[in-house]
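User: I'm writing a short report section on ligand binding and want a predicted complex to refer to. Could you take this sequence and beta-D-fructofuranose and write out the structure as tokens? A short remark afterwards would be nice.
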Amino acid sequence: MVNDRALRPKFHITGGNGWINDPNGLIIHNGRYHAFFQYNPHGTEWGNISWGHVVSDDLTHWKQMPVALVPSTDGADKDGCFSGSAIEWNGKIWLLYTGHSVDKETETVTQVQCLASSSDGTEFTKHGVVIGSELLPQGYCRGDFRDPKVWRKNDKFWCVLAARAVGGKGRVLLYSSKDMFDWRFVGDLFGRDSDCDMIECPDYIDELGVLTVSEMSRPPEGYLHLNSCTTRWMQGSLDYEKGKFEYRSSGICDHGFDFYAPQSFNGAPILIAWLNMWGRSDPAKRYGFNGTLSVPRELSVVNGELCQRPIVNARKVYETTVNGKLEDKFKTGMLAISVEELRKFKLILRKSAQNHTRFELKDGVWVFDRSMSGEQITGSEKDADSVAGIRRMPYFDKKITDIVIVGDEFSVEIFVDGKALSSLLYPDHDADALELEIDCAACVYSRYEIAEDDRLKTLIRREDCI
Ligand code: FRU
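Assistant: Sure. The structure tokens for the complex follow:
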């Protein structure tokens, strides 16, 4: 879906005129990419939580599909079809998602896991609850049990689920099944409380040994985890027998303001996240929509560190060497800046008479500043950086530094040697000037435009994309 309305993201997934949050059910089916997402088809606020659905051949041009799941009038998902995942089995797409219901009299929340399937990839039939509260071990909350991420290994289905011990904090539970209907509890991955109030949307990427978690109210560590909700990755090994996970390295998934609830595709180590944050003012509502998903990112692990590389079906339109100053125009598309022996780097993006966004290397740390980016975005965070519109990311001095910037109407996603920093922006419509000031041994600057059609299949001919 490349939206032709002027003030809409051009190639990032959005929910038409509605609200969207987490990506759900990311799957490759019959050679096409399917993405679902938490969706309110009736308004720009969270509510009526359904599953929106888009498909793509190249992960850049997305086509809107009919809504896949809506809450039932009665029953386990009557108050929302919450987050979940998809798997292909017996030629069908199976969706495992959280049914959310609230008892009106007692205001008690119950969350259980429900199943739906589709033979044509468009219409889904619900099969009801498959992981009910009775499969929660004793001492865990029935109201905080959600977001199943399913995968298949050794002839079994496995899923990780977010949970909370009564009176405690976030946990991740592992379940297994032979047939998607009959599930059993395997283990609590860490067997103790995490440091955050609640974990959401856990994901395990078996081929990389990477577990990702989305965390509410995690205490900040320096300039990390300043957002009200954050996401972390851990790399290690999952003991499928015992249901335990041990990790050797860990880190933050994204250093920007707006990145939450990432999920990877079943079938490929490619991740998409919600490009927003709970508790923020949402200037997008002014444009009649609310919510964007991140650009798809190919994941790898290098020296124990999680690396992300954006996948964009784009065509190079300009390339130059630069040392000193460069002026250009850039709004929608991608920049690739490859630098040898970087000494100084200052980039001004989305500049107009009133607005600009700054990304700069300062005292050995990347500093992103959206204080002058356009419409102010406020949130519940009260620390100095958040109030000043600042986010920071560490810089690891290397002989060659690779910087890739993906820009769309209302967002910028910056990748430096596989580390990411993503944020929303609401600048003036004409804010498209760019200024780069750089001191280095050598630098090649390339600008890419989004390809006009989706003929290029990114997964198959990845070398054509950057
Ligand atoms: C994460 C989340 C999930 C939940 C969904 C509801 O952003 O809170 O835990 O399933 O959103 O829309």
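A remark for your report: Residues 384-388 form the longest helix (5 residues). Helices lie at 384-388.
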